[in-house]
Structures are given as C-alpha cells and as structure tokens.
Specification:
By secondary structure, the protein is mainly beta. It folds into two domains: 88 residues, no CATH class; 79 residues, no CATH class. It has no helices and 14 strands. The strands form three sheets. Strands 1-10-14-13-11-12 form a six-stranded antiparallel sheet, with no helix packed on it. Strands 2, 4, 5, 6, 7 and 9 form a six-stranded antiparallel sheet that branches. A two-stranded antiparallel ribbon has the order 3-8. A hairpin with a 4-residue loop joins strand 6 and strand 7. It starts with 10 loop residues before the first strand and ends in a 13-residue tail after the last strand.
C-alpha cells in the first residue's frame, strides 16, 4: 500500500549502540520574544549570535548550520495563565522571561522520521546524509512536529544520517519501501556534539 505523507517530526526510538535510550534531556533556553512556534519532535538550532544556550526552530535552507538537538517540550511562566505552564510545544508567545526547553542532543540517539520527498527511500540510501523540510506545520492540538526528511545526499553538513528503513508493522503507513514518504531511522550527523561526516554512499 502506498504511503501517505503525514509527517510527525523526529521520534526518539533508541541508540546507535543498542543501549537503553535513557539519555538525559538537556536544558536550553528560548527567548520570550522568539515568535516562532516549536513543537515536540522539531529539530532546533543554536541562536548563532548567542553563546548563552538559546535555541530556535531549525529553518529550511540552513543546511550548513549544526543542529542543537530535537525539542521535547518546555516550561515557562505563562502571562495569560498566571502560573508556570508545562507544554509539549512553545506557542511563540505568552512567556514572562526566558522559556526553559528540553532537547535530546545525545550524539548516540536514534530517531524515526518520515521522508518528505516524492521519491522512495531505499536500501541504497542507507548511510546517506539528509536534511530537513519544515513544509508541514506542527499541530497546536497534539503539540507534535510536522518536520520530515528532505534532500538526501553526501553533503557533510546535512543534519542526519539514514541508518535503516522502517518496515514494520507491515501495512502501516510509512512502511512501504517501494513508494515515497517512507519512515526511516536516522542518527545525528551535523550536530553540536557530532562533527559532520561526508556520506559513504
């Protein structure tokens, strides 16, 4: 059955080493004035002009910027609610002071993600690098990301490396390796704790 494009961002599923995925969540900051929403499963990047831990949503077209990790939620003092709010996404406003964000930045982390390209991802693409598309917006109902994989190639500054194809459970969306929009497993490539490598394929 052909896959349907339904991106959900980067979902942590394990580690390269096979160890239990109990990597810690690193604390980062989002400026209260940062007006772009960030959703669970979104890739984030450092704010280049800041050396104090601020992050922003990864932007399409920044394929030469190292990623800071994958966003997994945040907490902030809500102006509208008058209390500390815990949220799976940063809505882009409503914080009094900096927002505390939690990100997965372990260089050993593995993620499942859907390909957003119109071509099938095949066994020949394993060990290739890939960048990200933000064409689908995240959901304010679920807090989930809409990011997907984009261009596949050998460029050493592409954010992720394709590790494997997802083929189970059979018949589930994203498991048809002969059509576009397949699910794949990826690891960090060009990340703050991992230098980018040129793909071997």
């Amino acid at each position: 059955m052909a896959n349907i494009l339904s991106p959900y961002g980067f979902d942590p599923v394990g580690t390269i080493s096979g160890a239990t995925p109990n990597f810690r969540l690193s604390k980062r900051l989002i400026a209260s004035t940062y007006a772009t929403a960030i959703y669970t499963g979104d890739v984030v990047q450092p704010v280049i002009s800041s050396a104090t831990g601020y992050i922003a949503q990864w932007a399409s077209g920044t394929a030469t910027t190292q990623v800071a990790g994958v966003f997994m939620g945040c907490q902030y003092l809500s102006i509208s609610q008058g209390r500390r709010a815990y949220s799976p996404f940063w809505p882009g406003s409503d914080a009094n002071g900096d927002v505390t964000a939690w990100v997965i930045d372990s260089p050993d982390a593995l993620f499942q993600v859907q390909s957003g390209t119109a071509s099938a991802v095949t066994l020949a693409n394993i060990n290739s690098n890939a960048t990200i598309t933000t064409a689908t917006a995240g959901s304010t109902l679920t807090g989930r990301s809409g990011m997907a994989l984009s261009t596949i190639g050998t460029t050493n500054t592409y954010a992720f490396t394709i590790v494997d194809l997802v083929t189970s459970p059979p018949g589930a969306n994203g498991t048809d390796t002969t059509t576009a929009y397949g699910n794949v497993l990826v690891a960090f490539n060009f990340e703050v704790f991992r230098a980018g490598n040129t793909s071997i394929s």
